[in-house]
Amino acid sequence: MNNEKLAPENFKVLISEARIQQRLRELGAEISRDFQDSKPIMIGILNGGFIFLADLIRHIETDLEIDFMRISSYGNHKESTGHVKVLKPLSADINGRDVIVVEDIVDSGLSLQFLEKLLSAFRPNRLKFATLLHKPSKTRVPVRLDYVGFEVEDKYVVGYGLDEEQLKRNLRQIYVVNE
Ligand code: 5GP
């Protein structure tokens, strides 16, 4: 199946499907080693993180649970407002559990900072953060990232779960949008 015709002319491939899948194999192996004696709960952050979570867990060789949270900080705008809201709270009880939060992209870092504060209050045993993409040049608060897929420069990216005004999440590669 190839749906790349959904990518208009101004989308340029930044990370190919093959590179994404290769990196997921590496991250999966790392997480399998780090959590071999535990059954972690992996929390996918909706909407953007759902494809990353779905593909990543299939490279992990330890039993695990999944759960989802939905937060919003952007609306349809491309700059972080800094106001993070919980739109769907956690269902699982993470008290005393090993937790891995799975994000699509860390930009300003405000969402992650908010999640760290919120989830630490439930007193998990271990709280780790995985993100497919990180834009270090945009990050303006200290963030602790344990698993990073790729560092990217300060450009708006779409595809593989990441949206352009709620569309294009189903693209199989990651693109940079040229204005
Ligand atoms: P932060 O709170 O770190 O500024 O932003 C995190 C959220 O902003 C991400 O989970 C994602 O939803 C959105 N975001 C930040 N940069 C981009 C980008 O380049 N492309 C897309 N599609 N979303 C982004």
Q: What about the largest sheet?
A: 6 strands, mixed
Second rung of CATH, namely the architecture: 3-Layer(aba) Sandwich
Helices and strands, in order, run as EHEHEEEHEEEE
Top-tier CATH class? Alpha Beta
* Radius of gyration computed on alpha carbons: 16 Å
The general outline is: globular
Structure description:
- 21% of the residues lie in helices and 29% in strands.
- With 179 residues, it is of the alpha/beta class.
- The protein has a single domain (22-152), classed as Rossmann fold (3-Layer(aba) Sandwich), CATH 3.40.50.2020.
- β5, α3 and β6 (126-134) form a beta-alpha-beta unit.
- The protein starts with 10 loop residues before the first strand and ends with a strand.
- It binds guanosine-5'-monophosphate.
- Guanosine-5'-monophosphate is lined by residues 48, 73-74, 80, 103-112, 156-158, 162-163.
Characteristic terms for this protein:
binds guanosine-5'-monophosphate, 179 residues, single chain, alpha/beta, 9 strands, Rossmann fold
Give the topology:
Blueprint: E1 11-15, H1 17-34, E2 41-46, H2 50-57, E3 65-72, E4 85-88, E5 98-106, H3 110-120, E6 126-134, E7 147-151, E8 157-158, E9 174-177
Parallel strand pairs: 2-3, 2-5, 5-6, 6-7
Antiparallel strand pairs: 1-9, 3-4, 8-9
Helix pairs in contact: 1-2
The structure holds guanosine-5'-monophosphate.
Summary, kept brief:
The chain is an alpha/beta fold. It contains three helices and nine strands.
